[in-house]
Amino acid sequence: ETGFEGRVVSTELGDASSLKMVFAALTKGSIALIAEILNVAEQLGVRSELEELWGDQATQQRHNQISTNAAKAWRFAGEMREISQTFSEVDAAPGFHEAAAQVFERLKSHKDWAERPSLAALLTSLSSQGIEEK
Question: pTM for this structure?
Answer without folding.
Answer: 0.85
